[in-house]
Amino acid sequence: MIRVAINGYGTIGKRVADAVDAQDDMQIVGVTKTRPAFGCDLAVRKGYPIYCTYDDTDKIAAFAAAGYQCHGGLSDLLGVADIVIDCSPGKVGASNLEKYQQAGVKWIFQGGEKHAMTGMSYTSSANHAANLNVNGTRVVSCNTTGLSRTLVPLYHHCGELSVECTMIRRAADPGDSSKGPINAIKPVLKVPSHHGPDVMTVKPEIIINSMAVAVPTTIMHMHVIVAQLPEGHGLDTESVIEMWANEPRIILMSGGETGITTTAEVMEYARDIGRKWGDLHEIFVWRDGVKLEHNTLYYFQAIHQESDVIPENIDAIRALMGTEPDWRASVARTDNAIAKYNNIL
Question: Which positions ≥6 away from 105 have C-beta within 8 Å?
Answer without folding.
Answer: 5, 78, 81, 82, 83, 84
